[in-house]
Inverse folding.
């Protein structure tokens, strides 16, 4: 797959001016001419050491994840997250494969705009973009992202041309205007000059909300190796009996998560392209199901409603984060992706992105984000 990235940074410039109060000419007191005792100069002040500054305590926001909803308008999908990042994604036609080219527009809460073009055909290398026969971008550059986005609502088709000015692919714009109006409304830009589609003259400053903070322990120590008795207990509690035809009972993964605890991902059940793993925490000799603040996968009750233990789909653990990737179908153009961090008590959702339409766009839309601070 080839990806072309067209970022545009719309960061307003901020001028900082340092001001000092004007000085005034002060006349000195008259010097006496009679015999006066000489005035001894005052000793220079002894510098005092600055008091040590106490480190600022970073508080956990204790935020309950509330994922943004995904909407579909014609051949476009849109989703926004809690930081006011809105992603607009083109979809391939419901009937027929189209040109296997998709376009994503990501607009941050502060107005930064980026455009991504994905092609499954290496031969498609667009040099210019056209909307209904009108050139909107002479070349693919960071400066063209906003121009591209703002040109789409009034059009019917986006055409990609090569260096010979030959059309190599088209993207349907059916529903693009409605998707942009939805994003404008969620971001609070509707009716302002800064909107993508719902433009107006209203004066309003949009500020992206700060992402919630999750305070998590540093990862130290080595992971414990589950004993045979502990594994038997986990399999019984999670109702896991998955067996690989070649290797027999599938082995679990064990990862240190800080505080002397170990996270275990226990293979539990599988489908054509999804492997579900039940989650346990080992603390010394104690084994307990992991608590999770937001379930993974498609089902609101968790990855597998038949497993009475929180689980992940195609789970992996890297750099202190547990990830889950539930595919809606094998090529992965729809599904749900999530990442979690252990906060010392439970697993907390740090990011979620999803694509509800299985229509050829592999770039998921972010619906929740949090910032992790290690202590």
């Amino acid at each position: 797959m080839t990806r072309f990235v067209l970022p545009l940074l719309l960061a307003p410039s901020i001028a900082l001016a340092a001001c000092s109060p004007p000085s005034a000419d002060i006349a000195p007191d008259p010097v006496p001419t009679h015999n006066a005792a000489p005035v001894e100069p005052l000793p220079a002040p002894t510098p005092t050491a600055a008091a040590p500054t106490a480190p600022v305590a970073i508080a956990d926001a204790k935020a309950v994840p509330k994922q943004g909803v995904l909407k579909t308008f014609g051949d476009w999908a849109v989703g926004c997250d809690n930081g006011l990042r809105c992603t607009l994604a083109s979809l391939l036609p419901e009937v027929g494969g189209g040109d296997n080219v998709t376009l994503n527009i990501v607009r941050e809460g502060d107005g930064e705009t980026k455009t991504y073009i994905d092609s499954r055909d290496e031969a498609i290398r667009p040099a210019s973009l056209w909307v209904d026969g009108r050139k909107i971008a002479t070349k693919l550059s960071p400066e063209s992202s906003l121009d591209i986005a703002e040109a789409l609502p009034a059009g019917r088709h986006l055409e990609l041309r090569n260096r010979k000015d030959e059309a190599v692919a088209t993207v349907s714009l059916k529903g693009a205007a409605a998707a942009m109006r939805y994003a404008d409304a969620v971001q609070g830009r509707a009716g302002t000059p800064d909107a993508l589609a719902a433009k107006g003259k209203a004066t309003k400053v949009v500020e992206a909300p700060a992402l919630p903070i999750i305070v998590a322990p540093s990862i130290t120590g080595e992971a414990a190796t589950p004993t045979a008795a502990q594994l038997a207990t986990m399999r019984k509690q999670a109702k896991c009996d998955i067996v690989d035809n070649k290797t027999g009972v599938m082995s679990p993964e064990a990862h240190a998560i800080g505080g002397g605890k170990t996270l275990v991902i226990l293979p539990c059940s599988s489908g054509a392209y999804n492997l579900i793993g039940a989650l346990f925490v080992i603390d010394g000799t104690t084994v307990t199901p992991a608590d999770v603040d937001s379930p993974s996968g498609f089902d609101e009750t968790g990855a597998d409603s038949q497993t009475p233990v929180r689980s992940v789909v195609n789970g992996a653990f890297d750099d202190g984060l547990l990830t889950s990737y539930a595919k809606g179908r094998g090529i992965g153009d729809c599904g749900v992706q999530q990442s979690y961090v252990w906060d010392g008590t439970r697993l907390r959702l740090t990011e979620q992105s999803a694509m509800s339409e299985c229509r050829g766009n592999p770039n998921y839309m972010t619906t929740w984000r949090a910032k992790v601070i290690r202590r």
